[in-house]
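Propose amino acids for all 208 sites.
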């Protein structure tokens, strides 16, 4: 089974890139399984900015066991599971590096549009959501479900366009899982989606 990483708002992101001249913000989108699931799995990895390229990442039984071990450490509570999700994203990105052969720089690198292996927020959020769906499909998420990616910023509101993957806690609270800010293989930012939505203004002193 293939878990495709479907781009979100890629056309809008490309339009914003052209409009702003590739500004420094985030615009610049076979065997596997575990003991309960032996279906072959692979994830299509987006890169090159706005999913210009895709590479197939096969996830085998060793990967499934590794993810199961990581998520097992988060079974006690939603905060523990979010911390485990962060570690799962780190492992996933290391595996991604092994397939692409290029270590993505943090944020969006100026002039890297179309460069294989480099990722903007469309690539990052699409890949992270594909991983989260994979974990959900293996029944490894106990306290969260995967929901649609979220976006913020329209330029006219003083913010660059930015995308993030999102999980919803069993209580209904949504959390952003944003891997764009950190270097490839590092822990992503995981924060309340409401707090994430309030960020990104270039004329404020608050976090970008």
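Proposal:
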């Amino acid at each position: 089974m293939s878990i495709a990483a479907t781009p979100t708002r890629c056309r809008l992101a490309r339009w914003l890139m052209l409009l702003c001249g590739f500004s420094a913000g985030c615009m610049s989108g076979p065997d596997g399984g575990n003991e309960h699931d032996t279906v072959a799995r692979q994830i299509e990895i987006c890169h090159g900015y706005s999913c210009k390229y895709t590479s197939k990442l096969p996830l085998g039984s060793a990967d499934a066991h590794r993810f199961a071990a990581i998520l097992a450490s988060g079974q006690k509570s939603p905060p523990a599971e979010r911390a485990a999700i962060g570690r799962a994203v780190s492992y996933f990105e290391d595996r991604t590096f092994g397939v692409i052969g290029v270590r993505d720089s943090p944020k969006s690198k100026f002039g890297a549009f179309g460069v294989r292996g480099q990722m903007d927020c469309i690539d990052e959020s699409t890949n992270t959501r594909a991983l989260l769906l994979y974990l959900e499909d293996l029944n490894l998420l106990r306290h969260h479900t995967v929901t649609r990616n979220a976006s913020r910023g329209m330029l006219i509101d003083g913010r660059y366009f930015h995308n993030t993957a999102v999980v919803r806690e069993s209580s209904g609270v949504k959390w952003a899982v944003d891997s764009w800010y950190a270097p490839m293989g590092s822990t992503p930012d995981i924060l309340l989606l409401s707090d994430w939505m309030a960020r990104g203004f270039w004329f404020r002193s608050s976090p970008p």
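The beta strands are 2-3, 41-47, 53-59, 144-152, 162-169, 174-178, 189-192. The chain is about 35% helix and 20% strand.
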